[in-house]
Amino acid sequence: MNASAKLSVQGLSKFYDGMPVLERVNLDVAPGTFCTIVGASGCGKSTFLRMLLSQEHPTRGQILLDGKPLPAEPTPDRGIVFQKYSVFTHLSVAENLVLASEFEAAPLTGKLFGSGKRKALDDIGELLERIGLSAASDRYPAQLSGGMQQRLAIAQALVKKPRILLLDEPFGALDPGIRLDMHELLLSLWNDLGMTVFMVTHDIHEAFKLGTRLLVFDKIRHDPQAPEAYGATITYDLPLNKPSFGDRDPQDIAGAIRAAGTPGQSSPSPINHP
Amino acid sequence: MRIINRKPSRVVSVALGLVPFVATITAYTIASHYRRLENPADKLLPSLESMGEAFWRMAAVPDRRSGDLLLWLDTFASLWRLGTGMAVSTLLALLFGIAIGFIPHVRGALAPYLATFSLIPPITVLPILFLTFGLGELAKIALIVIGTAPVMIRYTAQAVLDIPREMIIKAETLGASVWQMVTRLVLPQVLPKLISCLRLSLVPAWIFLISAEAIASTSGLGYRIFLVRRYLAMDVILPYVVWITLLAFLLDRALLLLSRRAFRWHHLGGDAL
């Protein structure tokens, strides 16, 4: 279908007001990888995701997409799902999904009418079916459950067939049972479309279950007198082989990560898991 | 059961709502009655009947001098000024509010100026308006615009800034141009809030309208009230005040209804007032 992208991060640092959040991040990601990103709160994993989206820009270093620097602003080649506010509250489910094709077809008004609109609505019928929202296509997001809203958000982010899909704690606000459904949906969409995925999550089990590659963000150096002095970087980069998943116990690795994180510090452990 | 948990039924609710109105009218009637017992020619608290007669005279009997039905003439003149002024203010609020709220460079250029301009007490500008635009319609409409537009622009700009950044970024990743984001995201998100702002701005708009009409005009509800004041004609003034209140109330309800019809999604969370 769509070609996914090779992504290369080189010497990336991000400072806020002179304080480092991320330092010396280097990463090469092969096309079609499902990268899950975990780490303590405030370790810069969401900042990293925002830089992949071009919502923020690196202080130092660069991010290359197929050898070319990322565009300076968000573009359709990178889809995004946030934890909330991902869908348009003033549009119904179906309108949310046809919006991208309306933008493309009607440069002036951004809105399709008559037969053009009907065609666009027909085109998303299958997608609606797939995310289980056919019956709710006329409802507004405020009338949907949290899980339905996130299914809509994921479908909407994939309408433009982005080569990279970015997910910022997309299931953080959902019930465990709903999360399982969402995992299934996400994995099947990823299998079909083959895009590169970056997903930030707080849930270590989710990270192991979904990812083909796990990235752990943490601070290597820590100065107890100046906790802000050093930024975080990628401390663990684990390839996850789906078939051998059973060999690795998430609990063990989570424990190892925590032990290696910031020993003897009162700061929160790098991995929060239940 | 605690009183905070006791909910009135629909009928009780309506009845309770009527109580203060009935109490006010009753109190007035009693006061008026005793005052007129002492002096039958009293003009300060006219009876309900004489007010009814005066209102009927203004509404249905042609004026002896001009042959006009004064109430309708005044109402039309005032509503035309109010409507034109608020239409201009709303248009300015949309144009400048969206530009200021959505485009950082425009915000940098205009926000401090607007913040300063909106602090000018509008009534102090009235003499300047009369001197520059003359005593015609333009000065009165300009006063309404100057009085309401700056606040409406600021409110609209804030409403644009309040749109979650996530939505704007999402629109960018869906390939929207700036203009398409304005038409499909910013405008629909802002319009229901602009209607709320319009409803609130109608209160000062009425004040500016009546003030301008009181000072220099030959028709209008404000003009009439300040004209008949010279004759102590409370029997005209009081019904006019009630009439203005009724018009303001109906305008407010109409805008609320419009918002509920046109922006159903905005009212899903359940809203009051």
Automatic annotation (TrEMBL), chain A:
Keyword Transport: yes
Name this polypeptide is given: NitT/TauT family transport system ATP-binding protein
Recorded family membership: Belongs to the ABC transporter superfamily.
Cited SUPFAM superfamilies: P-loop containing nucleoside triphosphate hydrolases
A molecular function (GO) term: ATP hydrolysis activity
Species annotation: Roseibium marinum
Record CDD domains: ABC_NrtD_SsuB_transporters
Residue intervals of the ABC transporter domain: 7-242
Record field: compositional bias (Polar residues): 263-274
Family annotation (SMART domains): AAA
Signal peptide segment: none
UniProtKB/TrEMBL annotation, chain B:
Gene Ontology CC terms, in alphabetical order: plasma membrane
GO biological process, one term: transmembrane transport
Annotated Pfam families: BPD_transp_1
Protein name as catalogued: NitT/TauT family transport system permease protein
Topology of the protein relative to the lipid bilayer: Multi-pass membrane protein
TM ranges: 12-31, 79-103, 110-132, 138-157, 203-225, 237-258
Family: Belongs to the binding-protein-dependent transport system permease family.
InterPro entries linked: MetI-like, MetI-like_sf
Stretches assigned to the ABC transmembrane type-1 domain: 79-259
Localization terms from the record: Cell membrane
Main location: membrane
UniProt keyword Transport present: yes
Source organism, top-level taxon: Bacteria
Record keywords: Cell membrane, Membrane, Transmembrane, Transmembrane helix, Transport
